[in-house]
Amino acid sequence: MSVPGLDLLVVYLLLNAGAAAVFYADKGRARQRRWRISETMLLTLAFLGPFGALAAMKVFRHKTQKTKFLLVPLFAALHLAIFALVACAGAGWVTLPGAVTFAALP
What we know:
- The structure is a single chain.
- The protein has 106 residues and is mainly alpha-helical.
- It contains four helices and no strands.
- The protein has helices at residues 6-31, 39-48, 50-60, 71-90.
- The longest helix has 26 residues, at 6-31.
- The relative contact order is 0.12.
């Protein structure tokens, strides 16, 4: 028996873990004064996996002084708002525009 949404959750967790890993790799490259991962790539990964990126920023103290990386907590807040909206829609408290609803079978 499969759990609905489990595949999506696994992909989301992998995106966050990947974002954290790339932030960690960039921090290591910075210490070694090697070629760096672009800020655009880091911000794109932070948009896709904001919780991993935010955790890596805090734990590794990486990119915390850069102004544009203040977007990362905003990305996390956006994801939380989307999760809340989807959860409310799933509970039937909110109807999303264009959402398909299924009537119970007799």
